[in-house]
Design brief:
With 179 residues, the protein is mostly helical. The protein contains twelve helices and no strands. It is 59% helix and 0% strand. Helix 3 runs parallel beside helix 6.
Length: 179
């Protein structure tokens, strides 16, 4: 999208060039509006200061709204095109993949991995996308991460094993443990 096209979109939608206007189009999966705002110079970091939410993580959380997968990834493509780091730790101290591992369908996690998201990145609390998927019971998501090479440490296995009692998840935990 060119700057002129972006200005035309924003004028048509009567949307001011303001960081506070970025959150709503992200949550509503309006990729064109997000693209237009970013193209004219709105910076997601400015939005984060206003909303206390990270743009990439906010976008990932749209998975919990039951959005169609093909629409849900469009905003991630827009954000990545504008240079947002999918592996950056956001305001919640999680990457997009960590959020996706907890809240999104496996297809979104697959998309993030295909876009280069690091399945080994850890939060300040030492959580990885796989450990979060195993904690939250996302067996299909855990399978995607394991197939991509994600593993958990022996220490993480012990902590997750005390919490996760579902037999299928325990089997995935065994498979995912570093040897």
């Amino acid at each position: 999208m060119t700057r002129a096209e972006a200005h035309a979109v924003l004028e048509r939608e009567r949307l001011a060039i303001d960081p506070s206007n970025l959150a709503s189009p992200i949550m509503q999966l309006k990729a064109e509006l997000v693209d237009a705002l970013l193209t004219v110079g709105v910076r997601p970091a400015e939005m984060s200061a206003i909303t206390r939410q990270d743009a990439v993580q906010m976008a990932v959380l749209t998975c919990t709204e039951g959005a169609r997968f093909d629409l849900g990834v469009s905003w991630l493509q827009v954000l990545k095109r504008h240079g947002l780091d999918m592996d950056a730790l956001g305001n919640a101290n999680y990457t997009a993949l960590m959020m996706g591992a907890q809240f999104c369908p496996p297809e979104t996690v697959s998309f993030l991995l295909a876009e280069g998201a690091d399945h080994g990145r850890q939060s300040a609390q030492s959580f990885t996308p796989l450990s979060l998927a195993l904690y939250t019971g996302g067996d299909d998501t855990a399978r995607v991460l394991i197939d991509a090479g994600a593993r958990v440490s022996t220490e993480a296995k012990q902590a997750i094993g005390e919490y996760q009692q579902v037999p299928g998840m325990r089997a995935l935990l065994e498979e995912a443990t570093l040897r």
